[in-house]
Amino acid sequence: MDRTGQAPAKQSSAASLMATLLRQAPLVLKNFRLYFTNLYRRKVRRTNIVAPYAAIFYATHKCNLECSYCTQKEPDVFSKELNTAETLRLLRIMRRETDSIVFTGGEPTLRNDLEDLLEAARRRIGFRSVMLITNGTMLDRRPRIFDHITGLVISLDALTVDPTNALSKPAALPKVLENIALAKSRMPDPRTITISTVIEEWNIDEIERILDWTAEQGFVFATQSALREKMPNLRLVANPRYLELVRKIIERSRQKSQPINGTPRSIETLLRFGDFQCFPTMFPRVYPNGDVFYPCEPLKKIGGNLLREGSFAKVFARGRKLHGEIPACRGVCYLFGNVVSHYYVNDFWRLAGEYIR
Questions:
Q1: How far, CA to CA in Å, does 40 sit from each of 44, 48, 166, 226, 283?
Q2: Strand 231-232 and strand 285-286: pairing?
Q3: What residue numbers bound the domain in which 351 lies?
Q4: DSSP label at 273?
Q5: Quick one: which of 296, 276, 245, 263 has its CA closest to 341?
Q6: Does 82 share its domain with 123?
C-alpha cells in the first residue's frame, strides 16, 4: 500500500488484467499453461523449443491459382497426401499437444476428403479451434465446410478485377467476392472471417481499399508483406505510400476502430521489419505426409515425421539432434506467426493486455 492507503497503480492494473483474463476461459487456461511451460523450458532447460500453440497442417500442395507471392507453388520439401484414415491418425497425434489446428495448402478445397477431415477434427478428435485458409474460389462447391470450422481465412490481394492472368486472384475476384458473401451468410459472426492480404509494390492502393472494405463488412483484416525466396522486400520501407498504409493499419489497431489481426507492436514489427526473436515450434508446420519442419519451413529442414515419432516433442528432440538449437536468425522471414511468437514468449503479459483492452 502507498501512503494514501491505496494499492499501487501497477498492482491494480495487474489485478484488473487478471480478472479480465479469467473471464475469458477456457482460452485463458491454455495461455497460462503454455506461458509457464515455455518459461520453464527457456529458463530451466535452456532451450528455445517452445510448446505448440496451434498446428499448421498443409492438407495438400495442389492449387488452382498461381499467385505471385505464393511460397507453396514449388515446395522446397514435397510430400504426398495420406489417405483419409492415415490423415485422421495424424490429426489425433497433433491433438495430444494442441487444441488448435489450421488447415492450409496449396488450396485445401481441392482435397476431396476435406469436409470429412474438418468434421472429424472438430466433432470427434476434439480440436477447440479449427480454421481453414483458402483462396475462396471454390467455397460454393464445398458447403459442408461451414458446418465444421470455427474460423475462415480468405486471401485477397485486390478489389479491382484484372482478367489478364487467368490464374491470378484479381482474375478470380468476382467468384471470390461471391463466396465471401456466402461465407458471411453461413458463419455465425463476421469476425470469424479474416481477409488475409499480402502487400507487394503493385497493390499498395488495393490493400488500402481492402482495409476499408473489411471494416465495412465487419471482417478481421490481416496482412503481411510478400516474400521472395523467403525474404521480404525491404524496398517497401522507402516507399511513402507503403509507410502511410502501415501507419493507417497500426493506428486503426491502436484505436480498435476495426478488427485487425495482431497488436500495434506486432504489426509494426511485421510491416516495418523490426527485430524479433523467432520461436517457430509454437506454430509447427506439418506437411501432408506428416513431416514436420524443424526449426522452420524457410530453412527447408525436416525434424521428423509425426506418424513415426508419435509427438511434436519427439520430432523437435530429433530435429535438435540433427540440426541443432533454433538459430538466432533475427527473424528474417517476417511471417505473422513467427512475429507473434516473439511477443508471446518474451512479453506475454503486455501482449495479453494489448489483446483484451
A1: 5, 11, 51, 35, 19
A2: unpaired
A3: 55-356
A4: T
A5: 276
A6: yes
Could you tell me the strand order of the sheet in which 55-58 lies? 220-225, 193-199, 151-155, 129-134, 100-104, 55-58, 285-286, 291-293, 302-305
Alpha-helical segments (H) within 154-203:
173-186
Non-local CB neighbours of 226 within 8 Å, separated by 6+ positions? 68, 69, 198, 199, 200, 232, 233
Q: Is 14 helix (H, G, I), strand (E, B) or coil?
A: helix
| Backbone φ/ψ region at 83: left (φ over 0), alpha (ψ -120 to 50), beta | beta
Report the domain count for the chain: 2
Tell me, what's the pLDDT at 8?
A: 46
| E strands in 189-259 | 193-199, 220-225, 227-228, 231-232
| Residues 153, 300 within the same domain | yes
Q: What is the dihedral of CA 312, 316, 318, 322, to 10 degrees?
A: 150
What pLDDT is recorded for position 346?
82
Are the beta carbons of 162 and 170 closer than 8 angstroms?
yes
Strand-pair partners of 56 = 102, 285
Same domain, 340 and 302: yes
Q: Is 331 inside a domain boundary?
A: yes
Containing H/E element for 117? helix 114-119
DSSP 290: S
Relative orientation angle of helices 336-346 and 348-356, to the nearest 10 degrees: 110
pTM (two decimals): 0.88
Report the pLDDT value the prediction gives residue 21, as an integer from 0 to 100. Answer: 46
Considering only CA atoms, which of 295, 284, 260 is closest in space to residue 337? 284
Any idea what the CATH number is for the domain that residue 114 is in?
3.20.20.70
Grid coordinates standing for 155?
A: 486471401
| pLDDT, mean of each 10-residue run, the chain (357 residues) | 44 52 55 76 81 95 82 64 98 97 96 98 97 97 97 96 85 96 97 96 96 98 87 92 98 96 95 92 96 89 96 97 86 83 82 63
Do residue 19 and residue 108 come from a single domain? no
